[in-house]
Each structure stands twice: as structure tokens, then as C-alpha cells.
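New to this. Explain the following:
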Amino acid sequence: MEVNVNENNVEQALRLLKRKMQREGIYRDLKNHRRYEKPSVKAKRKKAEAARRSRKLARRRRDFDN
């Protein structure tokens, strides 16, 4: 990942870097890797995330049709 600093504006470059990291999901990965997660717990979490995504997609499709 690369961010260019224009006119020595480091604050703007940092904001851009943080935004890129957020979009890539790096913060989420860091949070998930802070501690060990048992395989059964990991599978349960992934299944819940998939169900949440499915419900969200169904809701969007339903709202789009109306």
C-alpha cells in the first residue's frame, strides 16, 4: 500500500492511509488476530457473519424491488 505526500502535508497523507487501510479490512484483521480463536469459535463466527451478510443482501433486494 502506498500513499504519496504532497507539499509536505503529512496529516492529509495519514488520513488517506487510514482510509485505505479501513477499506482493505486491515483493521478488522488486526482485531481478529490479537488473540487465539478456537476453530469451533472461528467457524461459528464466520457462519454468523455469512448469515448477517445474507440478511443484509435480502433486505437490499427487497427494498430495491419496492
